[in-house]
Every structure is written in structure tokens, then in C-alpha cells.
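Why do we care about 3D structure at all? Because function follows from shape, and shape follows, mostly, from sequence. That is the central idea of this module. The next example makes it concrete: a single protein chain, its amino acid sequence, and then its structure expressed as C-alpha cells.
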Amino acid sequence: MLRAWASRTHGTGVDKVGILLVIAVLSLSTTAAVGQDDGQEYRILKVGGQETMSGYLTAWVDVAPDDRTVGLSATQGFPFRTFPIDDETNVQEMDIGNWYAGSRIRFSPSGKYLLLQQLFYLDFAPNKDRPIKYEVIELASKRAVLSLDDLYAAAITPDERTLLTLGKDGVRVFDISSGKSDPIKLARTGNAIAISTDGRFVAVAHRPTREEAATLTALRNDKKALKTAEKIGQVVVIYDRSTMERVALLDELFDKVFRLEYSPDGTDLWIHAKAHSRKGGNPNPDQSYVDVADASTHLMKRTSFPSLALYEPDFRISPDGSLFAIGSQQGRFMEVHLYDRSTGSMKDRFVLSYRLFEKMFSKAEFPSDGRLSFVFLPDGKRLLMTFGNRLIEWNYAP
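And the structure:
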């Protein structure tokens, strides 16, 4: 049902209590290894040995499917950069054009392509849809093979042959190699789209019809709730990818859905949503949440992960699938929260606070532009997060 924000609490977790670690300054000129007073271990990475404040404010980070390469997108017209895990000085660059506020980057399943999604300095437009730009970059040729404007969402299929797009007219299918599109597959617009890990299903977030809203368990026989649902609520419909016929309707009314994503292990569908700005009862207007549905049964799970991030938060799972991480914010500082994926209980957090600023090497280091992206490293022990023109490597499982 539509979330009662008063019932959602922003998990605070319990920081580990430990002995203040002695700060170890390594002989490496590109990194610093330090311990926080809660026992957390981290390094501040100087990617490519950058010494100036101009440029390379990192907007997004991802790890390639080869589990050996880190990819970084930046704001403005600066290039996309890659480097081997554990060798951030060995940087390769690729021109991807000018993305003023940066782009969300995700590698395709085999690493053949990059999918770039336009970002804004203010991500959320909670009361209206905001068309954005997407590009598909072929890494081998270093060129854009598809560039599309005025989309609400897009996703590459697991076989990497097609791009499904969601726009004002509905769902289209583009052949990536030729750039040609099929006729409209689904003549219904929406806000978010995702393709299941096995490629069988397509999930789309729509504004509900009266008939759809009436089938939801929490809204049956409640005329007032049905009316509200049609105005500010959203539903998630599961379609058969080959026919685009409806397979299921998730039995939940969501706030505005900003992102749908199937988990890499194929077990979950994640629904990231945020309440309408005029919705009453919101204890914090910045609060959003990620709800979870079972990817095979299309039934809602009981776990939910909150965020107070000012920007649309990044979220990922650990390599073994046991942890769910989401970006958040507490006061002035951004945070990464680690949850037990199965129970939803908070396990740990990392706060990008003044203690990090104090470990900077010089005034040339720019600590933050207000956006936090992160990715788990394949060893199951470390997590990389953006920090202005630096990266932070957090050893969350020392």
C-alpha cells in the first residue's frame, strides 16, 4: 500500500565500539591508509595521481564484469576513466562527451557496452516526470552506438542485443548494433523499467488505472484511497518480454518510482520510490526507500531499505549477496549504510565526515560535490565510494 511515512524510521544502527587505531601513513604517494575511531579501515585513493582541483569530480563508479576493472564517470566534459583494481595509478581514458552534472554508468553483462544515464545536480522531480538522455557506448570502438533523448528509463537486455526504452509513447525496442527500433511494444508510458536477469520479464512502473488500483489488497472497497492512488500512486507491472503481455501486478501501491532494478543474482526486484512532495504525514521530505519483490513469484517481500540522501541514492549488494548497501545522509554528511539483505537490519555504516577531510594530502583535493556512488569489490571485503576528485576504499570486512 502507499507508504505511511510516519511508520518509516531512518535506521541509525549501532557503530562498533573499539580502540582508537594508530594512523598508518604508508610510503605510497598515491594513497593513505587510516583507521577511524570506530575501528573502520579505509584508504583515500588519488586516481591517476591527480594533483589539481580542476576537473574529475567523480559522479559514478562501477566494476566491470571481468571483476578486474573499475570504471569512473565525471562531471562536465571530462573523460570516462578505468583502472585495474588495486592499481589506481594506471588510468586509461575515453572521451564520452560533455555530461554537465555527470552520468550514471553501468557496464553491460559481458562488459561490451556502457550504459550512460544523464544525472542532474538536483535529481528528484517528485511531482513531474523529467525526460533525460541515455547513451550506449561500445567499449571496443570507444564510440556511442546509440544516443537517445527524452526518455524516462532504459535498460540493456542480458544478451546485449537490444535496448528497451521507456518514453512518452511507451516501450520501444532498439537494436543496438543497427540503431533501428521496432514499433511501439507497449503503448503505455511510465517512470522506470528493468529487465529480469534471465531476460524473461520486463518490469515497468506506471500510474495505476482504476481497475489496477482496485485489485490491490490494501485499497479494495476504499473509494477515497483509490482516488488518491490514481493521482499520486504508482504500480509495478511485470510483462512477458517476448510478447509484452501482462504477467503480474505487484500487490503494492508505491510512491513515485524512480528506479527499478533486478538483482544480479536474479532473486529480487528492487523498487526505489519517493513520496510526492505534497503528501501529508512525511516526517522528512528527503526520505525515500527501496522495497523488494521476489523476482520469480512477483510477491512482495517484507524487507525495505530507507534513505535520506538528497540525491537519488545508489544501492548494491555484496558479492556473496548477503549485504544490501544504500547511500544516505545524516545532517551535512553522506553515508553508506550496510544492511543484512534477508532481515533488513543494519549491520554497519560509513560516514563521509570531517575525519576524512583531515587526512587529505593537500588543498588540491576536493572532498565532495554532494553525490555519493559506490560499488563492492569482488574480494567481498572492500567497497569503493566516490568522494569528489578522490575515491575512498573502505575495508568493511577486515
